[in-house]
Amino acid sequence: MTIEAPETKIVEKSRIACDGGEGALGHPRVWLQIPEELGWVECPYCDCKYVLKGREAAA
Fold first, then answer.
1. pLDDT tens sequence across 46-56
2. Which end of the chain has fewer CB atoms < 10 Å from its terminal CB, N or C?
């Protein structure tokens, strides 16, 4: 059995909201802040990785 890798999204702002993106099947909306030194952050619910545009190599 293989497990799908979490989704990675390239974003332009360092503060983003994640709700799982699947309507009623998603999760509560959480606001995430991408740390400047890292350039990415993962959602604690769905493990989606948000990468700041231009920092893809850091992720």
1. 999 999 999 88
2. N
